[in-house]
Amino acid sequence: MSSSDTVSGSVPEKGRGRLWRLGEWCARRPVVVLVGWLLVLVGVQVADHLVGGAYSDDFSLPGTQAQEGRDVLAAHEPAAGGTSAQVVLHDGQPLVQFQAQVDQAVTSLQHLPHVLSAQNPLPPPGQAPQPGGPLAADGLTGYVTVRFDGVPSTFGSDYLTQVDGAVAPLRQAGVQVEYGGPLGELARPEPSDRVSELIGFGVAIVVLLVGFGSVIAAGLPLVSALLAVLLGLGLLGLLAALTTFATVAPTLATMIGLGVGIDYALFLLTRHRQNLMDGRDPRTAAGHAVATSGRAVLISGCTVVIALAGLSVSGISFMAKLGLAAGVTVVTAVCGALTLLPALLGVIGRRMDRFTVRTPVAEGTGPDDRSGPDESAGAGENAGTDQGAEVDQGAGAGGMWHRYARRVERRPWWYLAAGLVTVLVLAVPLPSIQLGHIGDGADPTSFTDRRAFDLMSAAFGPGSNGPLTVVVDQSAVAASDRPALASAVQQALAGVPDTASTAPLQTSADGEVLFTTVTPAQAPQSERTTDLVGHLSDTVLPDAVRGTPAATYVTGTTAAQVDFLDLVAARLLPIIAVVVALAFLIILLVFRAPLVALKAAVLNLVSIAASYGVLVAVFQWGWGGPALGVSGKVPIESYVPMMMFAIVFGLSMDYEVFLLSRVHERWRRTGDSRGAVAHALETTARVIGCAALIMVSVFAAFIVSDNVVIKMMGLGLAVSVLIDATVVRLLMVPAAMTLLGGAAWWTPRWLDRILPDIDAEGTNLSPDAMS
């Protein structure tokens, strides 16, 4: 085939594989594709609005002590079981002056659906308040403990209206009424990511305008990513009707979907635009872009989804579902890049640079990267060194990144050491990491649960926001021995360190279960409260019932969160091992090079450790928390490190695949391993830099969220991508690849025979070698 045929895009049908034909078909029939996308999008959104589910943070784990204790209490004393929440009351005058309104509100709460019981904080007329009870010593603050048969945050906004109606007499009388615990979660404002999305989109527009110089080229990735995310969120809402997802799930899905959606579209658009500059017609250019860069997008998307799927190894449905939520928008982002974007490119045609802010230039592809479909990946291997040297010389003469790579070649150990020192310094805080649950006290004061937290802390101590329920199952104990058992338990609970108070033991109506409430001295998210739960469940209670067949449990929301924390901490290392192994396997399959795969896994571990260190310094040490709107020092949310690890490992593989595929392609053509690194940096640095800057901006924009966990995830992911795209990609990877030299691509013969041949960047686009 002549070079003129290559440029014009007259490629035999035999040479056009599935991806090429998909991209070209979408570009030739853009109306069909766009209408199809809009119909599916509208249909999914309407279905989500009609039957979509709600989101709730349910930390219950079958088989844990907290869950078993809750089940035992619910079976023998339903009114004391279920999920508890507080309705906090406060006024400048003693609450006893509002006896009638309090009684009316409590009665109304008791008759609401899902309510098992509601405890009146005021004593009967003529009786003194019980010390340590739900009425403060000054009588100005009290709380109604309401127990539900489920998690209130899943009941829907209509249920909140019923609760508001029940307490309306109190509010009409001027009493301040706030909702704490899970009920406060239901009362939170509907989470909106609009501000974060606008910030992310705004920065993305600026970056794309500077990078492409074209208004149309800058807008296409944003349109493709936005529609893909909207589709993904609609699908997630439908899944939420079948199972419970965490409250952060839609925000996390939006964050990841926007980031990868813009990135994937950007990589395809870059290749398409270069094809247009090389003279191909728009439809053929779109097909070639999908067959080349689209192949890398498909592999990268699969990598992210596989890494997220690794969370299921934890055996914790909460974590597995968060991975599923993020994976949904990753899948729709890949679909959007491979179908919706080519359709948009078909509509635009050659008008890509009609509206420009600067003169368009080739976007980071060297002369030899404009390979038509008649060029096989190995053609350059027999072409001689002179041709490769000629290209290198031309690129080096005008390529900043090429010259930079040459400097790395001369002192690889210095650059590798500089990168290593940087990430190790950032990782210094990591050993002091404290996993925990972020309590209501870190929320903004605009939230009712935060106001309830402050009122409870001031009147009853911070531990009152996370009371513990102690349950003793004495059904197997002889009736004659039960009084002694109750006395032993009550005595054991007296004076336990880090407890503020312990209520008298109560007996269930059937006499089979003892239960009481222990109020910690510290806030629920305090490390001392976590230690208290462990001390009660592992030492105090077992010692109290030793020698009897009684079973003991510590339950309640705080205890369930501690059980969740323990389980996550115990399974964090297995998750890391699985995700690292999956990433190693993917790189090995794509590049058939064990050393390259090992290098990728190790460098990703180092960069993630650095991002963990930044999180500890900002949130746990409080070095930047107040500036981000976080009240005080908070622990690292227990599931954030695990989620970050899966997400970041998947995302970092994107850049790894895009960069290494160019290194590998060049090395196969010239045999010059060092020149291949320089060439790959020059051809990918601009687009990877733009993509990383956009993703960092999208993630960082979510720091403005009111949800502290979202702030933490946004900052952690932004820092991770920033470190990965700068320190790792610009310092450590080029230095490591230079030091490895040709050995980087060594593959044992036995391994070479069993590994499949995966063409990551479509370099085998010849008429006879096209998949």
Description:
The protein has 771 residues and is α+β, with helices and mostly antiparallel strands. It has 3 domains: 3-51 and 191-377 and 400-428 and 564-754, no CATH class; 65-186, 2-Layer Sandwich (Alpha-Beta Plaits), CATH 3.30.70; 461-563, Alpha-Beta Plaits (2-Layer Sandwich). 60% of the residues lie in helices and 7% in strands. It has helices spanning 3-8, 18-28, 30-51, 65-76, 99-110, 157-166, 168-172, 181-186, 194-212, 215-240, 249-277, 282-309, 317-348, 385-398, 400-410, 412-426, 448-460, 482-493, 527-544, 557-591, 594-620, 640-670, 673-701, 708-740, 749-754; strands spanning 83-90, 115-119, 141-148, 176-179, 435-436, 468-473, 499-502, 506-507, 513-520, 551-555, 636-637. The strands form 3 sheets. Strands 6, 7, 8, 9 and 10 form a 5-stranded antiparallel β-sheet that branches. The longest helix has 35 residues, at 557-591. It is elongated, with a radius of gyration of 30 Å. Mean pLDDT is 83; it is low at 1-15, 363-398 and 766-771. It comes from Kitasatospora cineracea. It is found in: Cell membrane. One of its GO terms (cellular component) is plasma membrane. Residues 222-347 form the SSD domain.
Short description:
By secondary structure, the chain is α+β, with helices and mostly antiparallel strands.
